[in-house]
Task: structure prediction
Amino acid sequence: MKTLTIIFDMPLRHSELSQFRGAIVAAIPSSNILFHNHNGTTLRYAYPLIQYKRIEGKAAIVCIGEGVEAISEFLTRADFNIMLGTRKVALRIERIDAEEVDIGEALPPITYCLNNWLALNENNYRKFQAIDSIAERIQMLERILAGNILSMLKGLNIRIDFRLQPIITDYTANRTAIYKGVRLTSLNITFKANILLPEYIGLGKHSSMGTGVLTKKKPNNQ
Result:
């Protein structure tokens, strides 16, 4: 899996991610569907290959697979003077990180952090709250997490020949928020998984818009 992460020297609030995406889409000459996942009449329901993030408090774009090739249009032809809401911003690239990961079984398992993960919609949040056992709550989240990872791999036409076994070691619930009219609760989790994955990719709902950002846990955070 090829990924390219572009981090800009521009502070960005999470609430500004939608404006940031709109500004990037407006800045490119073509209407490449990978940048916005819709063509005006239909939606692209596949895993998003261009994702808009807030990394280290700054605006960022994460490109995956075909998205790596598509982003060249932005880098070579786009107008870097964008409108973010009502203010004009001159985008400056702070750094570009390229990564190519052979997706496969990781032994021993790798420890990851997943921030602002939308695992629980309104319905399964009620089910989650009704579970008294912490162990059973974690098991429910682990099943959802495994499904999110496998769904992401399927969307990238990647098949694995081993059983995926994520183990959540810690989680905290964030405030409930409204996403497209639906009340959702996001989680920050730490988990171990027997699979090698690239950093900054998104997992779960609305991963194209800064939720479910995956990073490897650094030793000094342990």
Q: What stands out?
A: The chain has a mean pLDDT of 89. Residues 177 and 183 are 6 Å apart (CA to CA). The longest helix spans residues 134-155. The chain has two domains: 2-100, 105-221.
